[in-house]
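Reviewer 2 asked us to include a model.

Predict the structure of this chain.
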Amino acid sequence: MVPDISTGSRTYGLLNYLYGPGRREEHTDPHLVASWMPELAHDPGRDPAATLKQLADRLDLPVLALPKDRRPARHVWHCPVRTAPGDRHLTDAEWAEVARRIVHATGIAEYGGDKTCRWIAVRHADDHIHLVATLVREDGRRPRRHEDGIRAQAECRKIEKEFGLQILNAGDRTAVQHPTSAERSKAERTGRTETPRESLRESVRHALAGAASEEEFFHRLAEAGLRVEQRIAPSGDTLGYKVALPGDRNRDAEPVWFSGSKLAPDLSLPRIRQRLDAGRLDGEPITAHGDDPALRPASARRQAVPVAERAVSIFDGDDDEDSAAQLVGVGELLDALAQTAPPLTRGELSEAARAFERATRSHIRAERADNRAIRSAARGIIRAGNALGKGEDGGATAMVLSTMVLVTIAAVRWHSARGHAQQAAAAQRAAQHLRGAYRSAAAAPMNAMREQGRRLPEPVREGYAGTLETVLPEHADSLRREPGWDALVATLDQAERAGHDPDALLQQAIEWRELDTADSVTDVLVWRVRRIGKLPATMDPPRARTNAQTTRSRPRPSPPQAPDGSADTRRVDSRHRGPRR
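Predicted model (C-alpha cells):
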C-alpha cells in the first residue's frame, strides 16, 4: 500500500479531476467513502443535488475564515493511497477505515478531535482512494503534520499486515523525490516517456560517472545539452547549481530548474564534492566522443572486471564505510556501461543502472572511504567510447556483465544483512536487468565458442572432460550437460594452444570464488578462464593441433597469476556461499 503526499493551492481543481473521467477515461463511479463530517460533505458522485463547488467551498471554509495574509499559499493536502498489484480489492468500508487511520496518523484529523482539518476520501477505481484535506483546522491553527509522509508509510505497513495485503518495504528517507502528479501530467501532454526530473537525474548521474573534477562534471553537463546555472558567491566560489531541460518551460515561458538536491539527495553540490574528494582521479578531461586511441572499449571493460570483483570481496568484509563507497562506485560503473553500451544491451543496462541508483544510498556514509579504483574503471569505460555489439567488444561486454551480476547480488546480500529493504530490492532488480543484458551480449560469442568446441576431435573433448573430473569431480556430469560445456571445452583448448596448462587454469578459475549458486557454472568458468589466461573474449580461428596436444600430453607450465595481478593464488573455502550469478 503506497501513500504519496503532495500539496497544492486549488481545491476545486483537484476535485474536478477526481470526479472527472480521468486522462484516459479510467475513472469509474467516483464517490466519497469517508469524510470529516458526512452531514456536511455531500457527495457529488452519488447525490444529484450536490455540486463540486459546494464541496470545495465547505472544505475551504476554515481557510477562507482567516485574513488573507494568514492563509497558507498551498493549503490543499492530497494523498492518494494505492494497494499493490495483485492485492485484493478493498470494500468501501475498508477504504473508509484506511482513510481515517491515515488522516489520524499524519496529524490531519486525530481521532476524537472536534477542531481538526476538514477532509474527504474519494474512490474512483478499485485499487486506490484519494485523500483531500485543507490545511487549516476548525480553530484556525495549522495541523501538526511534521514527517507526515513517513507516518503515512508506517501506518500503511500496519494496515497491510492487518488486512492481509502485500507488505511492502519500508522507506528510510534516502529515496529520491518522485515526480509530482502535475509533472507526470505535463510529461504525458508533451509526449515524454518520463518527466524532466527523471531525465535530468539520469543525465546528472551520467555526467558524474568517472568525472575527475568539479570542472569536468559541469563541462559534461553542458556537453549533454542541459541548461546549467551555477550559483556563484562574491568570492567567485560555486555555492550550488541547477539544471533544466531545453524546451521545458513553465506557464510564464521560463525554464523549469531543478537543483541537484531536488533530483537526488546525493546529487547536491556538497555531496558531489565529497564523492570527488574521496575518489579523486587523475587524468585529462574526457572528450564527448571517446576518441582516445590509447584505450579501446574491450580493454576498458576487461580492466574493469578485477576491480568489480574486488568490490565483491569488500562487501563480504566488515568495513561498512568501505562497502558504502564501493556501492557508489558500482553505480558509476553501471552508468558508464549504460552510456557506452551497444544497442543490443543498452536498454537493459540503462534499467539496471536506474534500479541500482537506489541501492547506492543508505544512512551509512562513505565520505572518507577510498573508491578510486572503481571510479577509475568507470572513467576508463567512458573515455574509451561506445562499444560495438560484436567481436572483442561484444565478448568483453559479456565478460564484464557476468561479473556485474555477481557484484549486484553481493550488494543485495550486504543490504539485506543490514535491514536495508528498499536498497536490497533495488539491487535485486538491477541484477535481473543485468542478467537480461548478459544473455543478449553473450549470445554471439558463446555460440561461436560452442560451435568451435563441438568441432574438436572427440579424444580432445574427452581429455577436457577428464580434466573436469579431476578438478570438480562432484559436478562433472551435470556440467557436461550444461549448454556452456562446449564453450568451456573450446576455451580450454584455446588456452592450451596459447601455452597454458588447462588443468591448472581451470583449477584456479574454480578456486577464485564459489560456484554452487551460479546460474550457469560453465558460463562463469568460460569468462574466468579467458580473463585469468588473458585470452581474447572472442573465439580465434582454430589452428592445427600437434599429436602431443591431441593425446593431451603436454608440459606443465607455471600457473597463471591470480585475477588481481598478484603472484599469490587466492583460495576460497569451498563451504563459502557467495552471491548468485
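Residues 421-455 form the longest helix (35 residues). The domain at 2-163 is CATH 3.30.930 (BirA Bifunctional Protein; domain 2). We have added this to the supplementary material.
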